[in-house]
Protein 1
Amino acid sequence: MKIVLQYFVISCLFSFSLLAKQQYAVILQYHRFDDERYPSTNISMKLFTQQIEYLIQYNYNILPLSKVVRFLRENRSLPDKTVVITIDDAYKTVYTKAYPLLKKHHLPYTVFVNTMPIEHRSKNYLSWDEMREMGKHGAEFANHSYSHPYLVRKRFDMTQEIQKAQEKLEKELGDRVCSEPKMFAYPFGEYDKKLMDLVAKLGYVGIAQNSGPISNKSNFMALTRFPMSGGYGVMDQFVVKINTLPLPLQSVENEDTLVDESNNPPLLTLTLQQPLKAFQCFNANGQKLAMQWLSDTKVTIQSAQPLLYPRNHYTCTAPAEDGRWYWYSHLWVVLK
């Protein structure tokens, strides 16, 4: 009996150690808070507060994005239930609405800043002094370009857009700017192979806006995040998303994102690490996509209709254990 009990205790401890360590995380993305003028990028403070209180009540580990990315790139384990809070564009309501709640709970978060409106002292954006204060209470800051342009669609000096913003951030905010690693969030969430290659050459990690958890196997030039604005963060969806697992992928073909008349609707080919039951894919409107299985682990996915300007995505999911979901999303930038 004693031997059986010892075996049971050892087994439980071993199982707990496996559950307590992971190499994946969920990143949440926000923009505006309690600003109903812009519903597609806004979340109410009532809902945001519910989300934060849920994370705290159920013992989620909220970590800075820079630390999570660093650990994953180095193949180091993260705590179980790791979640990251990110905020894009540095709107004023980050300071007036979200910051007091985040400060109250001593939570870390990452703000991606496009610096031009800050330099112009726009009343709709944070000031450098406000960001310095936030930096003393959990905030870190990263690059979201200088002027927030459509880098993929128009002829911009992409290097200048990135480097000019980084220089200003470092000058004004010092060591509260992410440097290990440097991170760049794509304006409008749009990127293509050319831009990803440039971001890598300049020494940045690329941050996207299409949904899904990240892992040590992710493409670090396009780390995915779950948008929480525009109705995507209601509590039932929120709970599902913070518990998602990375889709076990062996490879992704057609990794470029550009779609024009020659390849619309685009074809995506995924190879899974193992067969998955009830695997299915949808476009941004929730319409189910056609799939053709080339083997029990290799599948092609394609919309029945051409994708509409300006953006779309193919999102693929499958049920995992304990009511959780595997999740993967591929961005498409639709050109005119």
Protein 2
Amino acid sequence: MIDISVIVPTFNRAKSLEDTLKSICEQTLSSNRYEVIVVDNSSTDNTFMLTEQFVRTCPNIRYVLEHQRGLLYCRHRGVKESRSNNILVFIDDDIIAEKNYLETILNTFEEHNDIVLVGGKVLPDFETYPPYWIKAFETQREGTYILSFLSLIDLGENANHIRCDFVFGCSFSIKKDALVHCGGFNPDSFPLDMLKYRGDGETGLCYKLERQGYKAFYNPWTVIRHKVPSSRLTIEYFCKRAYMEGVSWSFTGIRKIGRTSSYITTELYFLFYIFALVPFGLYKVGLRSISLFPVYYKVMLNFFKGYRFHRMEVLKDPGLLSYVLKDTFMTLP
């Protein structure tokens, strides 16, 4: 019986995907209890050939081609293809899972009947030593560490119930019936020419889960390592990531109130945030790290630019507002 369907959306990252699949094939959980679905978003590299090589030695791997562009469609295609009616595990194509990763997830669900979502540690696998300014974006308190711009999280050594949005998308384990009941994921990553359709992805799903009263659990033994190439350890990358997060924040805000703001209100909000960013940024980095403020301000300014971009696009296109306010972005047979 298949207890877990591991869903791996991918696009043109065959090199990192190889390490991901290798780690998933070497799990302590018996291979007849889980399957792996590689959902290829029309890659132009050797993703197909690589996956077929793994299929020869790991028959529980399947390759699926998804033509619609965007992470949203890959995730939901994986749900449609899944043979497990119990647990879905969504992972990124640039992670390396510990050998007991799936076994720990399964045991956690079996030991806690009140939960539908399991998260754990997402630790860094840095290609190069991170720059000093990265501290401006870290959150550290009482043995916990979060760096959301790189999708890193470590909530310490104690297993406990947590907020649903503390489960990051690169290691997202959920009961299938809960995901379907809440309407699946919201839109997430899209190519740049489709940026206005970006949403809040798994974060939006987490908000829906919490509104329905579902619970999440953190197990410190559920561990993956997330590859962080040197290209992501640049101010330029953080600015780009912040811009995308600003788009997502706008999407979330519109869905919360059921409408968007006017042109004038949007511009006033933008100006307010720019000025408020100065005292907040100084508080965030602290007086002892005042040299980090220029980097923090530059990156977070892009966050609010992304927010403003999305609000303006929604104002220009009534159809986009209807899209943002859709009840569900998932259709299942």
Protein 3
Amino acid sequence: MDGFGDIKMVTRVSIIGITGYTGLELLRVLNGHPEVTLAHVTSRQHENTPIGDVFAHLAHMEITISNPDLDVIAKDSDVVFLCLPHKTAQDTVAALYGKVKIIDLSADFRLDDVKTYEKHYNTPHNYPDLLDKAVYGLPEITGNDKIATADLIANPGCFALLSQLMLYPFAGQIQHTDIMAITGSSGSGKSASDGTHHPVRSHNMKSYNINKHRHIPEICRSAEITENQINFVPTSGPFTRGIFATAFIKTNEDVGIDGLYENAPFVRVMDNVALANIVGSNFCDLSFQRVSECEYIVQGVIDNLVKGAAGCAVQNMNLICGYDETLGLLSLSPVYP
């Protein structure tokens, strides 16, 4: 594929898998983008249904959910967003690759090693050749130029995105790090479970998959550490949106922490961070403190559905389409209070 030099007016986009929280958030973000038109929003279960009949908060939108063949979607679109569950996106990516630009929000193409993927997701990867072709869609680390020329973008996991932005300034110098990351209930997805049931979740905190979370390989790769150099404690919190994380970092030598992320429009380095300052937006707020020689505390917050998913995906779309990476995203001011 030769890129998007021939696109003169607007970018035609489709969302495959509209009914989960990520798909719905992506629709919200794209709805305010000045250079986008929606070609298809799809769901097998709700084909030919007005979206307002399925989601009452979208009753003002004149959108009908469809389920066309993938070739039709590719023909009608410049960019296709996949909001499918982990392990199920592989076949769809393979069918679309080479026909349209793809931004995959599942985990199926985030890891470039088949064995690592199969270990953490407990399923075979049927298209290992495509792992080498996927570009990891974290602009602040991967780099805008590499994303701009990609045909397949693998959007990061939400825990992984925040943790990487916290650790990346220390990459190559980390002796050990301990991270506790507290996530809201929307991170568990739309399907109800005992752990996300409101009467329990609303007044509870609990950790899960300690040192076994599937996002750990993503974190380790950019931080240039092994899994033995990190303790990662994902924790469920009593709120809906956002991730609040704290990292305790010990380095091999002192690392400068002045002027970090100055050229990253969605990373704000602050004295202190708070979820209320970023919810609803594409911002990642970080604070860096030097505790003593070679020891640091870093805290960070993101909205798991925006910067941790849909917002980052649109940031990637802007880059591959030749737009400014902030287009349609700076208008998403944090919802405060």
Protein 4
Amino acid sequence: MLPVSALSQYVFEGQVDPSDWNGQAYLSEIKDYRKLNGVFNEQLIQRVPLDSLGIFRFSGNSLSEANKLYRIHVDRCASYEQDLNHFTGNCEHSKAMIIIANNKDSISLPQRFDNEIFCEAISTNEATLALLKVDSIMEAMKYEFVGLRSETAVNNLLDTWTKRLHEFGAEQDPLVGLYIYTTLTDRSTIFYDHHLRSLNKTDFYDTLKTRLEDQYPEAATSKQYFKELQADKSLAKMEEAVDHSNLYLGGGVLVLLLMGVGYFYGRKRPGKIKAALTPQEEKILQLIKENKTNKEIASELFISHSTVKSHVNNIYRKLGVTSRDEIKSLTIR
């Protein structure tokens, strides 16, 4: 199925169920990895028909000699619907696969027995197979997220799987690392916040930058990555500074609060205490400081025991104390 040619020529072929799709397959070059999963007409470089068995074949001699990211997709959109359905790039009627290839590569995308497509690949370029491995790791990670409720558990899981992706990506073509970066910095997911928090804890992204500079210095996706990584670092520093300022502010507020409480209790509070108490409560307060019991206070003031208890509770509330010993420790003028 994979032809061998003495000429430098790429061949990408596959098979889909022709009754499910619109009769054509599309090949796009990804120049902006933020448009990795969309259908964008400006990235389209080749369109071929499906034959009666649903087989499609892209071939030619016009691709780069260096590896690049490409996208093969089919969709269910009729020709008159395509401009409308693809206007934002997000076509819900399409199925795609991302590949890494160059002008010499042959790639076959077989249809599985259950009619599933773009799940497997036979490729002369190992980087395409590595992309499938990344997808399988991401899929396994999603299953482990099911049922997690604790933020700590989620963060621990993100740490574990991110490390696994980094370790795998470090051994692959830099474009595989770029694919991993794209996935882990999707701003519509929880991955991006985790990425910013952990950015200074890994050398994966700086190493990836060096590898891209060495192998693909002029690629549009490399230049895009260099800018985004710098922006990520700046944003991570800003968030770290905010976290630290909140910590310092919180500590400062606590100190001021404790100082204020001490000042209130030591100086201001006594002057306001008597003004806050009723005349009867002031009498009871003085008797408490003389070590009188509730029964003795009731007898001395000719009131019921329950009334004394009610006054004592009011005194506790107004003075912010919880015991007679605390009352006795107050200096009241």
